[in-house]
Amino acid sequence: MERTEALLIADLCEGDETALAPLVEKYKRMVYRLAMQITKNHADADDVMQETFIKVYRSIRTFQKDAAFETWLYRIAVNEALNFVKRRERRRESAFEAAEGEYETTTRYQAQTASDPHVHAEKAELRHYVTKAVNSLSLKHRTVVILHEFEGLTHAEIASILNCSEGTVRSRLHYARKKLRTLLKPYVDASNV
Amino acid sequence: MRSKCDKIERLLSDYIDGTLSERQTTDVALHLRSCRSCKQEVVDLRKTNHLLKNFYVEPEASDTYYARFTTQLQQRIEQSAPTTLHQRFYAVLTRLGWHLFTQVHRRIERHRLSGFLSIRRHAFSYYILALTMTMLVVAPLLLHQVSPNDNGEHLIGRLYTAAKIRFFSGNPSATVQPTAMLAIKQDKTVAKPTDIRLNVSSGRTTETPAVDSNSDVWQFTDEPMTEGYIFTTLRENDSEAVPSVALDIDSELLAYAELPAQEAFNSRDVLTDSRYALLLLKGIDAGQHAPQQYERKRSGFKGFSQKLLDVSPEILSISEVYDSREL
Question: Would you call B48 and A170 a contact, using CB atoms and an 8 Å cutoff?
């Protein structure tokens, strides 16, 4: 019998390790997506994934049952990824450039392969540049854009995850959009929407 | 006009999201009627959003990666999770020591050696570092002293066998067809349990084959269990030559469950109804180590065991207690 999420969490709280696997199964893609978008590197995203779920396993007793598990998980994953990037930058690892290259390859690959074979090359190019524009945003701006535009979180939820005010979230989102508009100007001007 | 535009411009992002208050929305809408520049800004922001929503490529990994990740995560949890109080204590010490080491190392880099050597300035760091390093060296020796078993083996790192019994049937309204599932955690560093016995209904005992040592969950039976009990015992080796001391330490009576007659166990939530199994935490060995084992085991089942021990005796009672030496 399939256990509900609430039961899985209750079981995990009581030390039942088997309850972790279904939660990982459900949220692994979300966590990977977030980690990859923030770290821009597959190896780092993998580390963030590991740390996130280990933290979930170890800290599940601190999770308040009346809160949304997904938001709690977002908070852990985003903060793990942000800390990872900050640590990496502090260490001034030269791997950062390689990392961006790796992510570029991934997105470009997907832009070409994920689409229908008959999709025009222009659309593939557009996907590439839009993705590149988002990736070129600063860490703070990129994080807010990802959480709001792609994960669909509200300003309040993002503020709670990033431990900042809603005003800060709004402001970052505003500047991020302006920056994106500038970066994508040729495509914005050509767009008929 | 420019200052008005600046003020409105800051609201445009929220305007296109529809998250402004009614009054602010009206203000912006009125301004847009008379300001071509701001109106164009709104159009551009909407177009940008459209591009993001429709053309941004989210990263995705292959199924192979996810499968590998899941396996690695499971292994890491099994291997690294500190389980006993001693292990947790040691893990915290190690983490603290490493943290302090990196802090001091960073200071050395920052201030060069001359700055760092100012003892007075960094006296506290020196003190904590020295204390931690001392504890790291001394703690294992101390722990070794407190819990040796009769064979002289210290018990650090040994996770006592833990059992959890669940009863459930696929269909809540169906007659009782519960299956018993027993999850057993084991310490990978000690000898693997190779023999588990299951006793279902009327004292019938079934021997299971040697368990898969890589697995920590075993499905024992799908036989109907309208009434009966289940218990397990572990042996370090499937051999008559196992020393009784070793058997005692690892063969506590683990679990006991009795179902009220004609009662269906429909799902896991019966746990909260006190209609569940009783996990009996009893050290079989009456020697000096038994109380410690009991305490540790109990702490490992914090919450779960408490719920089970709260079960009303009218609903669930202990009818027999087995000694592993009688099995």
Answer: no
* B143 within 8 A of B166, measured Cβ to Cβ: no
Hey, are the CB atoms on A7 and B269 less than 8 Å from each other?
yes
Put simply, whether B61 touches A (Cβ < 8 Å) is yes
Q: Do A188 and B51 touch (CB under 8 A)?
A: yes
Rounded mean pLDDT of B39-45?
90
A57 touches chain B (CB under 8 A): yes
| Domains and their CATH numbers in chain A | 1-93 (1.10.1740.10), 115-193 (1.10.10.10)
Q: Answer yes or no: do B56 and A149 touch at CB < 8 A.
A: yes
pLDDT digits (tens, 9 = 90+) for B166-189: 333 233 333 333 333 333 333 333
d(CA B264, CA B176): 5
Highest mean pLDDT out of A48-62, A97-111, B83-97, B240-254: A48-62
* Test the A interface: residue of B58, B173, B222 with most A CBs within 10 Å: B58
**A65 CA: distance to closest CA in chain B (Å):** 15
- Contact call for residues B235 and B251 (beta carbons, < 8 A): yes
Residue B143's pLDDT band (boundaries 50, 70, 90)? low
Report whether pLDDT(B281) > 50: no
The reply to whether residue A174 touches residue B12, judged by beta carbons under 8 angstroms, is yes
Nearest-5° angle of CA B159, CA B162, CA B163? Answer: 165
Residues 149-208 of B with CB under 8 A from A: 162, 164, 168, 170, 183, 185
User: Comparing C-alpha atoms, which of B79, B85, B80, B188 is closest to residue B146?
Assistant: B85
| pLDDT tens digits, one per residue of A125-134 | 888 889 999 9
How far, in Å, are A17, B228, B275 from residue B178 at the CA level?
22, 12, 13
DSSP-derived secondary structure letter, B253: B
Choice between B64 and B144, residue whose per-residue pLDDT is larger? B64
* Closest partner CB to B56 (pick from A7, A123, A131): A131
B147 Cα to chain A: minimum distance (Å): 24
H helices of chain B, where?
Answer: 2-9, 12-17, 22-34, 36-55, 63-80, 85-116, 123-146, 244-250, 290-300, 304-309
